[in-house]
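Section 3.1 - Work completed
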Amino acid sequence: MTVLKTSMRNFFAHKGRMALSAVAVLLSVAFVCGTLVFTDTMNTTFDKLFAATSSDVTVTPKAAKSDEDPQSGRPESMPASALTRAGKAEGVKSAEGAVSSMNVTVVNSDNKNMGSTTGAPTIAGNWTKNDLRSMQITSGHAPRGPTEVMVDADTADKHHLKLGDELRTIAVTGDFRAKIAGIATFKVTNPGAAVVYFDTATSQRELLGATGRFTHINVTAAAGVGDEQLKRNVADALGAGAYTVRTQKETADENRKGINGFMGVIKYAMLGFAGIAFLVGIFLIINTFSMLVAQRTREIGLMRAIGSSRGQVNRSVLVEALLLGVVGSLLGVAAGVGIAVGLMKVMSSMGMDLSTRDLTVKATTPVAGLLLGIVVTVLSAYLPARRAGKVSPMAALRDAGTPADGKAGLVRGLIGLVLTGAGTFALYAAATADKASDGSLVLGLGVVLTLIGFVIIGPLLAGVVVRVISAVLLRAFGSVGRMAERNALRNPRRTGATGAALMIGLALVACLSVVGSSMVASATDELDRTVGADFIVQGNQRIVAQAEKAMQATPGLAHVTRYKDLKAELTTPDGKVDGSGITAADPSYAEDLHRKTTAGELTAAYGKDAMSVGSDYAKKHGVKVGDTVSVAFTGGSTARLKVAAITDDDVAIDQGARYMSIETMKKYVPAGKIPPNQIMFGEAKKGQEKQAYAALKKAMEPYPQYQVRDQTDYKQELKDQVGQLLNMVYGLLALAIIVAVLGVINTLALSVVERTREIGLMRAIGLSRRQLRRMIRLESVVIALFGALLGLGLGMGWGTTAQKLLALEGLNVLEIPWPTIIGVFIGSAFVGLFAALIPAFRAGRMNVLNAIATE
């Protein structure tokens, strides 16, 4: 009870200092809980949607038995006879044929794409009774003929659509128009998909290119019949193995698989950044308790002298940490729910609608947040508590601070140097690896070891680096600058720990900046060296035939190149089977992409019954020019193609691609199963580049799902995409930077308290308030720049090593983004200035006489 009272008294006596540490715990726990609540809510949203849209039993075609190849852009479908047989199965109340396709684009009268901007699909199909499970018609009526369409209410609201507006649907089979006859509202939350409905005949004709076919069958069970029994009955009626038959749960689980990977990436990436924030917060908490223990050394000595045991002193500090962890974690859990709601609002503004009605806070989320926050806080305070317990009564009564342990410092320094050396060696090994997959594991080890090593040897580095920074920066400030330097060097361990908190975040910023800049520079260099085409047409969907014709008819183009990827199994002369497919392109692709060959000529690969293979593939399977490879096309026949060229795989574009001509492909793949183009290229007639570019843009205007880019556009888009990704990562890393700033504030605030008498004496002999505040600000700037210098140096080392691994994948250019690095370094000085505002202000207000009288 005495320990608890002492801990409570000390906790509230230093509530200002504790508040800063509590904020670090709060932010870290909030990010973890916010991530868990956000991802759980998304899962709940999709679970409800999939459950509501799935019938009791769903029948879909099997790929091997399907009469349609999904590469064609048309969905796999089944004949109407399957619907008849399924409807006659025992236990079936009703069976309904449905048509659904996601390979469509819907535009309004202004040619604006009505689809989602967040990657959610546009879904077109026929209106069925099963849709009433998840939607209700709230305006107009269901489509009754080929000129009518119904849209979902979310899409109508987002794009200001109303009854009577005309929409154009662009499908693989062609374009068709219809006017909005109805609007349907989701009964559950729609995460952002755009949905349009047609009558059954129109859906079959326009989406499948054939009447009397369905993409799936919705089967409803009769009263008293379970889903599993119904599944068996329907499967028996259709014939064993003829179709895929799933229960409602199985269908929902199958649909969920499509988003699990995406959700997993979001969840673990955000938790990773939360972990970084926790790591930074550890330094803050260690620093806080170390300084509080140092300030209470005489008090601890008195407690020991009157009978308190080492264990009681230790427990007193740990109980304070426990209180801090509980308070910070409880607030963090509540803040985490707020963060999740905020993320949902942000996603909704971007087009992915998430309703707070589906807000999901599982019991494990607050438990995980509380445990994590409390455990991390208590463990962070363990070393200071242990150090407090080891102080002898007489030493504490003689000293104003805890005695330094020189032997422990030497051992720690040696361990840090060993770890840093081992990490440096691992980075070197990664940079010289022969395979990127092997080197990446060694790179990860090197990053961890060098980070831990730098944290441990931080106090040693502080003595050197701070002196160098001070010589450059502080000499101009005279005696005030020299005092700021001495204050920063007074306790190297404290300065090292404070700087390390900032170092971690900035090391990751520098590493990612180097990797991102190198990727852009490498891709740009690769485009300059290898891409000869003037124009590239590409989109999120395959290029439909009508868009292809529009491009081919564009004036000012010397040639247009089609590029298709096909599913196929290749059997090499050594008997090995590879199912990664093959690419078919026009012979002009050899002009559009300047690929080096290690044997043969690429133009020969576009000859009759010929192909090329990549150098890695040739080496792996012992293939050489003149060999014959068996190519079994999915949905087509088997060809025996002669290897006419081996392309060099030391590239980033089309690495490992195997080429053949489109004419050869047509011999072995039926016309109905030839896929639309994945991408198309254009070459302008000499001297007509600008006119051809403008003409091509105009020709592709009716198809907003595709982008027309020249090489300058392509490079800029690549740069923008990498920049957006980095900005998002920097935004997440900002949490760690914020916690690091709190650490600097806390260190300075406690340092000011620790030096109260000293500050009073300096003020008494003539130091002005302005000079005092400047001294504290300069001390803060030096500490911040110390952490920045270590972090940026470490991060550039990591980034350079990562680029060496990327070079094995064809990204050969190393580019250090000096403007970013210099900007971050200068920004760190402002971080130091900001962190010193409150401590400097409080120091300036200190009463001189009271300060001198302080014990």
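Second construct:
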Amino acid sequence: MKELSSAQVRQMYLDFFKGKGHDVMKSAPLIPHDDPTLLWINSGVATMKKYFDGTVVPKNHRITSSQKSIRTNDIENVGHTARHHTLFEMLGNFSVGDYFKKEAITWAWELLTSEEWFAMDPEKLYVTVYPKDDAARECWKEVGVEDSHIYEAEDNFWDIGEGPSGPDSEIFYDRGQEMNNVSEDDPENYPGGENERYLEIWNIVFSEFNHKPDGTYEPLPHKNIDTGMGLERVVSVFQHAKTNFETDLFMPIIDETAKMAKGDVHYGDDAEKDISFKVIADHARAVTFSIGDGALPSNEGRGYVIRRLIRRAVMHGQKLGIEGAFLYKLVPIVGKIMESAYPEVLEQSEYIQKVIRNEEDRFNETLKDGVGLLEDLISETKAKGETKLAGAGVFKLYDTYGFPLELTKEIAADQGLDVDKAGFDEEMQKQKERARSARGNAKSMGVQNGLLTDIKTPSEYVGYEKLAADGILKDIIVDNKLVNVVSEGEAQVIFDKTPFYAEMGGQVADKGIIKNEDGKVVAEVKDVQHAPNGQNMHTLRVLAEMKKDAKYRLEVNVEFHDKVKKNHTATHLLDQALRDVLGEHTHQAGSLVEPNYLRFDFTKMGATTPEELEKVEKIVNEKIWANMPVETVVTDIESAKKLGAIALFTEKYGDTVRVVKAGNYSMEFCGGNHVENTNEIGLFKIVSESGVGAGVRRIEAVTSKEAFEYLERRNVLLKETAAEMKVAQIKEVPHKVQGLQEQIKELENKVSALEDKFASQQAKDVFKNVQTVAGKTLIAATVKVSGMNQLRSLADQWKEKSLSDVLVLGSASGDKVNLIVAVSDDAIKSGIKAGDLIKAIAPLVGGGGGGRPNLAQAGGKKPEGLPEALKAAEKWLAEK
């Protein structure tokens, strides 16, 4: 076996399959594109689903890739096991209806054992097969695998529900008994058993069945091959590493972390500290790549995962004695390790470091609050005489403040307490169910449609040059069957030529009509989508008879089309303007180009300021009024990149691409329709800007007539406002508003002063009513004030005069209740805390609250419960 670096293993795998006629597909971004079933790209096949279910037919039916992936279902295991990772790379070779078992197995064996390639010892390789898959067993025997090295496994059947499925065959490498964690005679000591000796390095799936919605299986119209070889695993074999972490993919990160650790700390010296080293190395890779691909920390979805990984790494950094922000310093190390395959990481290093550093600093502040909450939870548990911290409380620490469960256990143990693990697990399960629900019920992969996949009729799009054209009707599909004639209802059709644009790149499909040779309208075009083999497939509402091979006149709705192309060109200008104002790290995260408006999603940390939006809008309009020509260049992809054209990281491009240039300002890869000069757009106006997800903002805008109408509606509102304010000219409105605001502020101050005076008058009577409860003095009363500000003012007066040990005041206004609790310093020393008392009585007024030991407040919606709450305060104090 050769001694290979991780970069050499990756490249050798791709080169081998390239030599077998495979196209090398660049690793897709970790953020899924048009796939609501996935939070992250979690495997190599995740990027191939459209090919495997027949939605799209690839140009080359043989594909190979090294796909970066993220899995987050077992983050807690990372660092504790030899091979769990959040980010990993999956090497794979794929056949979409081309070769099958014989070729897949033959080539796998050649790559693994040939001296030209991996040169592994055949005696160290074992395979497993599905018991009923005699064909796979025979293929393995034909390449030279002995019967004693072939094992049957009932679970060797890949099935994720509806869609392609089939048996699989796993390949194991024998690392020797010296690498094992079970004895020689252990029943698990075999390839496929729970042991460290036989390491699974490759899985080959023979996708040959359709798992139908009714639960039955039928042969696929086109059989596929899907394989996966974990790069981290196979590199550990080549580098004779006990775990994946002792390889060149992780050790440089671990070594750099050790330099930042307090004292003379090294990986391998202490098992507990090794866990922290592994966690930090794993999480540094994951957050670097995910942020580089456009995700940002937040409290939901992908952003929540990033935030959780950063916080988990920070906590483990503290275990190593690392003080302050440190994780961001590891980004260049990750970039250097992965430079040969992912040069973009180093190119974006400064931006990625900034995002991580901000999150680390934020967490270090949050951590202080979390420590206080944990101390409160421990105090409450002890006060109740319980021995376990409540699962819900522990989960809140974990979920909101990033406290690892094991850290909470350690701190609780120091206080003689345990953790309600069952309750914690229950809360964790609820969260997972919420996440699954948020992703919806969309199927992970569709059932393969052999009919559409087999339609290979040539079809030419001529809509760039003309919006009306004659076309021969080549295919008619009704109810998923090919027919020769259709007279009514809905049908999907393909013409040899069409001017109708098929929805793509955010641009909606054209609308229009179909006429026969007599000029009669025979159908309305409702939608146009790409068929699996790339043709423009029209969905029609058929009005009169249409026949296969007949000639028809296809006419696009020109008004609809012209509006769409104005908005599409405006979208390109907006994209570049956002980069100019916000920075080049801003990525497009999606778009929609309709006739009446445009929508543009982009990545950004935090909200976009009004000033930034004004700059963006001004730039776009300046480019519109600059009368810039809009030109299209068709060239090869490398030439387009050299020109400086922006490529969307979510899109796949063919050998030739269209580049749309707006003057010397904007240049993008684009297959859509555009104006010939920016002045055709007329006017651009941003209507709204908002957040739509983790680190993703959305701009909605209008152009041309719609922009004018939008401004006119605002002008009408302004005129109506001027009339209401009784000002002669619109320009006087701001001055009038300013005057009214000053009057309102003056009146509010007067009202506030009167309220304070009234509250003080009440206080004279309230503060006289001091009662003694269990040796402590208490003032508890209802007062008539306007809100919490007056209650706080009364609490300040009480504190200044030291009138009692405890103060409880409540007020009701309509259906709202306010409560405040204050406790003297001496009472706090005896164990009485305002936060504890407010939590005990707030539920009685239908609310909740909290605060510091000396002052706490709560709100509620149950005024009738106020007297009971005050009595409950007496009882609570009596029991203390």
